[in-house]
Write a structure and sequence with these properties.
The protein has 142 residues and is α/β, with parallel strands linked by helices. The protein is built from five helices and six strands.
Length: 142
């Protein structure tokens, strides 16, 4: 008996499209992270990058439950004294709704080199238009 070890070159990457309209942010991010990581495949191995591409449309219509729009905070630190900037979810949703989804997906991936490469396969767009029609994405079942 030999153990099966998948290689990243063995699999073809599929393209999925997800409509974020009226979907809770956390549940949406879990499904995106699992698809990008490849956990939905029977040959999943945490050390091999074999996930799919995910296109998220209507990012500005994603739903935050409870009072998260006013209470949830995102912060950024430049490294300099006094360089910490804090934004509420409401201001970030108004200005950059794609960052809210990317931040949620990033929080659900392992923090290593593979995860940084996985995040390049997450494409998030504010409206319903996207430039990836040539890839013929299928509508995600999640």
């Amino acid at each position: 008996m030999k153990s099966f070890r998948p290689k990243s070159s063995d699999e073809t990457r599929n393209w999925h499209i997800v409509d974020a309209k009226d979907r809770p942010l956390g549940r949406l991010a879990v499904n995106i992270a699992n698809s990008v990581r490849g956990k939905d495949r029977p040959t999943f191995d945490p050390s091999v990058d074999q996930g799919d591409f995910v296109i998220v449309i209507n990012a500005d219509k994603v739903r935050l439950t409870g009072r998260k729009l006013e209470q949830k905070e995102y912060d950024y630190y430049s490294g300099w004294r006094g360089g910490r900037k804090v934004f509420t979810a409401k201001t970030l949703m108004e200005n950059h709704p794609d960052r809210v989804i990317k931040q949620a997906v990033w929080g659900m991936l392992p923090k290593n080199k593979i995860a940084r490469k996985m995040m390049t396969r997450v494409k998030v767009y504010r409206g319903s238009e996207h430039p990836h029609e040539a890839q013929k994405p299928d509508v995600a079942a999640f």
